[in-house]
Amino acid sequence: MRRVRLAALILFFLFPFVLGSLNTCVVHAYTQRWGPGAVLAKVHGTIDEGVRAYIEEALAIAKNKHWPLILYLDTPGGYLDTALSIVDMIDRSGVPVITYAGGRWAVSAGTLILISSPLAYASPHTVIGSMQPVMVTPEGVKPVNFSKIINTLLKILEVHCEVYGRNYTAVKLFVVSNLNLDGEEAYRYHVIDGVANSIDELLVKINGSIVKLYNGDEALIVVNGPVEYVEMPLRYRVVSFLSDPTISSLLLSLGSLIIIISLASGHLMYAPLGLLLLLLGLFGLGYTVNTLALLLVILGAILLAIDMIVIPGFGITGATGAIMLVLGLALLPLSGNLLVTAEYVRILLYTAISIGVFFAALSTIIAYKVASVVRSKPVYQPDPIGKKGRALDEIHPDKEGFVIIEGEYWVARSRGGVVKPGEEVIVVGKDGPTLIVEKASKGGSAG
Question: Angle CA(65)–CA(221)–CA(53) in degrees, nearest 5?
């Protein structure tokens, strides 16, 4: 009996420790450690297709390294569809993303990304908010009040606020009332998870945090190692530049004008330049980088082939083809499942430029050779009047025969007598392609 009581007493004291150990095992079974380093991506300016592709690449790098991604925002906003696409990428990536609004502002589309991230931080004086969608019309910028769009946006924000424990009441005012808050106010109203004056301070604050991800998993953030900054590649910068509505409209207008003028005037060699501007202008209409890059490569190769084979001479057609080829190869995306280094991207870019320069140089050499032939002095005069030669046949005034003049064979007829084969003749005239000759002994003159 005494042994039973002793066993029960031991179990009574050991039970809490056993239960705690089991809980610890359960937590570690569903919590992944991310670190010890971090990947840093910085977004400055409008959120567009180039920024979306840049963040997608940064997410792939972070996932491959199993490091958290720190997304720095300094943006006045951007395209709603693009921002929603970025949010969807973050949700599906399974990467703990810490979005840090550390610049002057992160309003509109920037706030949407900030609120929808697993961890949201801001600088104390950074402004966030003003999320009501707008559209650009010929009359100017107009707010979007369609319930279909507004309600969808609000629901997306509500779901993310529930997942990450944020104040949806304040977030809703960002959309319906264009409410603006600075970082301190946003933290006070539980819109974001904290404030930090710099990225270094942010790293200290998030180190050791357990972050809930959109898919329900938890991530333990351990950042006591290096921070790898992923710079925005040149091709994404080009895409962002071409996605600007002003630039896009200008390119489309100029391209259309050049094509119309070239067709109307008959100077078709300028049409490829207009085509190039039209293709570049399509970026602003929402066409993907993949499609336009492929079109640029194909059309560039065709124009270079036309310039070298059909119309030799490095003119506007060849120059446009070389530019298309270089731009197309530089903008061609890498495989989504392939992770490469920045050095590889630079090599790819240099290779694209080298190919374009090679074709341009080849066309230039061909053009130089053609120009040299055109400028070279003929080895004989097209009308050899006054030249002496020798008759190969018997030639009469009404019977033609062959003569040889400075190594060239000509059809000739005589004037004033019969010329025997082998006799020396002199050219005194020309009737179309037929020469008029006399015996050289007569001393005939040109006439």
Answer: 45
Rounded Cα–Cα distance for residues 184 and 172 (Å):
18
Can you spell out the DSSP letters for 49-75? Answer: HHHHHHHHHHHHHHHHHT--EEEEEEE
Give the residue with greater pLDDT, 296 vs 48. Answer: 48
Q: Judging by DSSP bridges, how do beta strands 434-439 and 408-414 pair with one another?
A: parallel
Sequence ranges of the chain with CATH classification 3.90.226.10: 28-232
Homologous superfamily of 28-232: 2-enoyl-CoA Hydratase; Chain A, domain 1 (3.90.226.10)
Distance, in Å, from the CA atom of 143 to the CA atom of 136, rounded to the nearest integer, reads 9
Q: Where in the chain is the domain with CATH 2.40.50.140?
A: 388-442
364 Rama class: left (phi>0) / alpha (psi -120 to 50) / beta: alpha
pTM to 2 decimal places? 0.63
| Mean pLDDT of all residues in 334-361 | 48
Rg (CA), the chain: 39
- Beta-bridged to residue 424, according to DSSP, are 390
Query: Which among 106, 66, 62, 110 has a CA at the least distance from the CA of 87?
Result: 110
Query: Higher-confidence residue: 57 or 26?
Result: 57
| Rounded-to-10 torsion of CA 298, 299, 300, 305 | 90
Per DSSP, what are the bridge partners of residue 44? Answer: 74
CATH of domain 388-442: 2.40.50.140
Closest CA to 70 of 91, 39, 37: 39
Residues 93-144 have pLDDT tens digits of 999 999 999 999 999 999 999 999 999 999 999 999 999 998 765 565 678 8
Instruction: Pull the structure tokens for residue 32.
Output: 């992944």
Instruction: List the structure tokens of 70.
Output: 């720190």
Torsion over CA of 14, 20, 21 and 23, rounded to 10 degrees?
Answer: 150
What SS3 state is found at 338? coil
Q: Are 425 and 416 in contact (CB under 8 A)?
A: no
Locate 159 and state its tokens: 């779901």
Contacts of range 376-380, beta carbons closer than 8 Å, 24 or more positions apart: 380/406, 380/408
Helix H or strand E encompassing 230: strand 227-230
pLDDT of residue 416: 78
Nearest to 364 by CA among 315, 301, 323, 317: 315
Q: Which residues contact 310 (CB under 8 A, 6 or more apart)?
A: none
